[in-house]
Amino acid sequence: MSRERIDRELAVLKEGGQDAVLLSGPPEVVIYKAVPTHGAQLGLQPASDVVVPVPSGYPASMIDLAGLPVGSPLLPHVRGGQNSQGIIQADGRQWQLASYHPHNGGGGPPWDQVKHGFHTYFDHLLSWLARLT
Amino acid sequence: MNASGSTPVIVRAAAPESEALLGVVFRRYPSREWVTFARFGWRDTPGGLVLTLAALDSPTPGDVDESVGNVAIDEAYTLRVALVAESHNLAVGVIHSHPAGARPLPSLTDDDMDRYYSDYFGGFAPGRPYVSLIVASDRDELYGSGRIFWKGEWHKVTRFVVQPTPVRIDYRRSGETRARGGERVARLRDAFGDEAAERLASATVAVIGASGTGSPAIEILARAGVGRLIVVDPDVFVASNLERIHGSMSDDVESGLYKVDIARRHILSINPECDVTAIRGALPQREVVDALVAADAIIGATDSQHSRLALSDIALRYLVPAIDCGVALEGGSGRITGQVIQLVRFLPADPCALCRRMTVPWRVAQELMSEDERKQRRAAAAAARERGNPADHYWHDVPQLNTVGYLTTTAGAMAAGYVVGWVTGRFVPPFSRLQMNLAAPFFDVTDVDEKPRPDCPCRRVRGMADQAIAEALITAPTHWPRPQTLGESIART
User: Fold this and answer.
1) Is B376 inside a domain boundary?
2) Is the pLDDT of residue A127 over 80?
3) Whether residues B285 and B161 fall in one domain
4) Which distant-in-sequence residues (6+ apart) come within 8 Å of B357 by Cβ?
5) pLDDT tens across B300-349, in order?
6) Structure confidence by residue, pLDDT tens digits, B243-289
7) Do A57 and B362 touch (CB under 8 A)?
8) How many structural domains does chain A have?
9) Exposed/middle/buried for B350, CB within 10 Å: 0-12, 13-18, 19+?
10) Under a CB-based contact definition with an 8 Å cutoff, are residues B473 and B351 in contact?
């Protein structure tokens, strides 16, 4: 894990007003705090914490997946939320990983480690939590 | 002023910065000195401190007194460099020349300068090394000396690794050479000269991967009299390796030996004086990088994408020239359509592996996953296929690339030959990315001269060592076993 790189990426988010923390684990994860959702239209919460695993060898490996707290009412409504990719423990909570792969054929651009990182992944998370079904 | 600190120091430099440096400090040669400030990256390893020339802060008119033969730096130049140092994280150094024929040893004036500057720059760049180097030319050879003030002590520079023009640290009288290697390298000495044999005997070469391609490279380097070999590989020897690993025996199949154990045994059977460091590990694990930054050159012989990224990163940030080898036997059902060898040169000034599009993101990711994650991904892919959904989100099946011993041996031998050329200064790889097909007329040789991507950080991190750690192309997965080093100090006499 490149702590220095991830710290720099999270600092970019912080400048824009978005909090996110890197937890060294295991598993190593980034937790994005209070990410806005479009849940209100379904009577669901307007924001949620989101967990994203730090991939092995990052940044050589692409960021993939996203998770919500186990039992989150948003899970049945987010893309891939009903196709669990495992449960992980982080920050004293349990999280369910959804089958969400924006850089791996899931609708986003192919992973480019020069351009992409945990700061740009936030845009995908915003989209993920906005397109509820 | 004595450099009484016990930390060995290696200073590395590479083109284009090394050539620019010589252009600056020798601008009034041969009779008068000149000087420049410079910035260095560094890495603190168990084996010593490694400094890498990252940039020059060359003097502008008026910064240095032209009217005197020795170096007289204007205070404004020093202040400018010190203020700039507050905006970067690199070590600050001063490099000056001594007149042709003079030994590059510090004078009393140099002692005064270093005492003053080490204290002065310590105020602007606290915690960073202060570097003072002297270079001189004599009879077409470059000589250097240096000392570093770091952690309250002066440490002597013990080795220069400069590409493309070697810099010697041991000043010699005219005609003095040391024949090393005896009759074993007599033919090589006849062809390349005594001095080349001496350079090989003083050189450190690393080979990443001790299998089909790495093992012949290792053998050739050992036979050529390379003084120190670093061999890195994480894998245990298995029966199918007998077809291609040089030095392996049928008895090794049952022994549970690692490939590096076999490589070490083979090297010492060829040249018992060779200093062998065998590491069960992989790039870019910290212990492996620590060893590699002391090498004169590296051969990458793993044929894996993540290893290519790591090799490219080491070449760039730590200024270690490298050659990556790949081979592929194309065809099937008994019909061979291609026998491809690829050699990629990674000089510090060359584009990185990303600029050259040598990697595919999903493939790198799959190489770096833990075995548990791979199992989970394969299961998810199988489940997706059962549902009639695409499975590529989870896992891509990668066909095993076939290779055979004569092909891997050819590739490894070619890479070793180019490293011998590099280390001796006799020739350089005349290609950027060589591809050849042994099954095609005239081998269908191509050379792809790729350009760097304008937005790639590789253009701005050259020589920045650990000070550009945030720009590392790859990090070692935490699930990999910790490296083990064997025979760390098999001393050569």
Assistant:
1) no
2) yes
3) no
4) B450
5) 999 899 999 999 999 999 999 999 999 998 887 778 889 999 999 999 99
6) 999 999 999 999 889 999 999 999 999 999 999 999 999 999 999 99
7) no
8) 1
9) buried
10) no
* pTM exceeds 0.90: yes
Residue B170's pLDDT is 73
Q: What is the CATH number of the domain that holds B23?
A: 3.40.140.10
Residues in chain B: 493
Q: Token match 């000396």: residue?
A: B145
Question: Two tokens at B12?
Answer: 């590395």
Find chain B residues with C-beta within 8 A of A112's C-beta: 361
Which residues of chain A does B286 touch, with a Cβ-Cβ cutoff of 8 Å? Answer: none
Q: Do B361 and A115 touch (CB under 8 A)?
A: no
Whether B380 sits inside 8 A of A5 (CB atoms) is no
Torsion of CA B438, B439, B441, B446, to 10 degrees: -50
For residue range A41-95, what is the model confidence (pLDDT) as tens digits?
Answer: 899 999 999 999 999 999 999 999 999 999 999 999 999 999 999 999 999 999 9
Helix axes B214-223, B405-424, angle to 10 degrees: 40
Residue B409's closest CA among B420, B401, B417, B397?
A: B417
What is the Cα–Cα distance from B26 to B5, expressed in whole angstroms?
30
- Interface probe for A, chosen from B372, B475, B479, B480 (most Cβ of A below 10 Å), is B475
Mark yes or no for CB contact A61/B364 under 8 Å. Answer: yes
Helix (H) or strand (E) holding B22: helix B17-25
Same domain, B203 and B340: yes
Residues of chain B under the 70 pLDDT cut: 171-181, 487-493
The residue segments making up the domain with residue B110 are 5-168
Question: Hunting for tokens 């790198």 — which residue is that?
Answer: B364
What is the interface pTM, i.e. ipTM, of the complex? 0.90
Q: Residue A105: its chain B contacts at CB < 8 A?
A: 390, 392-393
Mapped onto helix, strand or coil, the DSSP state of residue B150 is: strand
Contact flag A56-B369 (C-beta cutoff 8 Å) = yes
